[in-house]
Write a structure and sequence with these properties.
globular, two-stranded antiparallel ribbon, about 0% strand, about 65% helix
Length: about 230
């Protein structure tokens, strides 16, 4: 009887369904992934990381690469800071966070140089500027320093995904309407051009990125009235 109870306890522990430990993808943990995609989006709700939306959304390809890079940096940095959170003196925590993020960014930059050199050149200094990205530093300070490794990993992935989603969405409209292409391939057929259509070159200018983000924010608040700030 005792052996049977022991086996049941071990099985429960492996499945993370015992009272002492919550499941890996519990409702609370899933919210860490889903909330940044909508109700707590880093760009449209927290209004962070706007510079990237202005600078690298002329084409889809650099926007996708930037999104993946930020996700790798945020997930790894959150995990490392979470592991070290009880060892970091409070007075030097910002310095430690910067060192960790800078190390991850350098690693990502070297990988891009090795396997996607053209994109790396196109993104130029913007990969390096991930070090000072408000979203990355904000999640380290607000979440990773006070939570466990798994939750911190999910938080990093979720916020990076929310950031990347807006970046890719803005780049999609800017490249399509600005040059008639997606990922550099012609999408709008020549027949449309023969009918008098001209590419909207205005979409390729930086102010249009801000206007596009503004329209996304307006649509999001129109759909979700909870996000509307009350005076």
């Amino acid at each position: 009887m005792e052996e049977k109870k022991s086996i049941t306890k071990k099985t429960s522990t492996l499945l993370f369904i015992n009272k002492d430990r919550e499941p890996l993808f519990s409702k609370k943990n899933r919210k860490l992934l889903s909330d940044p995609m909508d109700d707590n989006n880093p760009i449209t709700v927290q209004v962070l990381g706007i510079c990237s939306a202005l600078a690298i959304t002329v084409q889809l390809k650099p926007a996708v690469v930037m999104s993946i890079s930020v996700m790798a940096v945020m997930a790894a940095s959150n995990v490392i800071i979470s592991l070290l959170r009880n060892l970091i003196p409070n007075r030097i925590r910002i310095i430690v966070q910067l060192v960790v993020v800078a190390s991850m960014v350098i690693l990502v930059d070297q990988v891009l140089r090795a396997f996607a050199y053209d994109v790396s050149k196109e993104l130029s200094i913007f990969i390096g500027l991930i070090i000072t990205n408000c979203i990355v530093m904000g999640r380290l300070e607000a979440f990773a320093l006070g939570n466990g490794v798994w939750k911190s990993f999910l938080d990093g992935v979720g916020n990076a995904a929310g950031y990347g989603f807006i970046l890719i969405l803005v780049a999609f409209f800017r490249e399509l309407l600005g040059s008639g292409k997606l990922f550099g391939y012609q999408v709008i057929p020549d027949m449309i051009y023969e009918m008098g259509y001209e590419n909207n070159g205005l979409m390729l200018l930086s102010p249009m990125a801000l206007i596009t983000v503004g329209l996304i924010i307006w649509l999001q608040r129109y759909r979700n009235r909870i996000l509307i700030e009350k005076n």
